[in-house]
Amino acid sequence: MSKIVFFCIPAHGHTNPTLGVVRELVERGHEVLYYSYNSFREKLEAAGARFVSCDDYDVEQKLGLKDATRVGKDLSFSTQILGEFRNDRL
After folding, report:
1. Looking at beta carbons, which pairs linking 36-45 to residues 24 or more positions away fall under 8 Å?
2. Where are the domains of the chain?
3. Statement: the pTM of the whole predicted model exceeds 0.90
C-alpha cells in the first residue's frame, strides 16, 4: 500500500475531476491524503480520501486575495507554502 498525497486548487472544476482517481486509488488499497479546504471535505471523504484542512493555514499565514492569485501562478511560492505546512496536521 502506498501513501498518495493530493494538492489541488480549491475550485470545483479542479477538484471534481480528481474524485474518480481518488476512489480508484483507495479501492486498490492505497491511502490517499487530500489537502484542501473545508468546503470540499464531504466530497473528498466520500471518495475515500483522508482529508487535511488548509483553512487554518491560510489564516495563520494571513494570505490575501493577492496571495491567492500568486499561489495559482507561482510554483515556487506554492511549494514554499506546502513545505511550511506542519507535519503535525497529518
Report:
1. 36/6, 36/8, 36/10, 37/10, 39/10, 40/10, 40/15, 43/15, 43/16, 43/19, 44/15, 44/19
2. 3-89
3. no
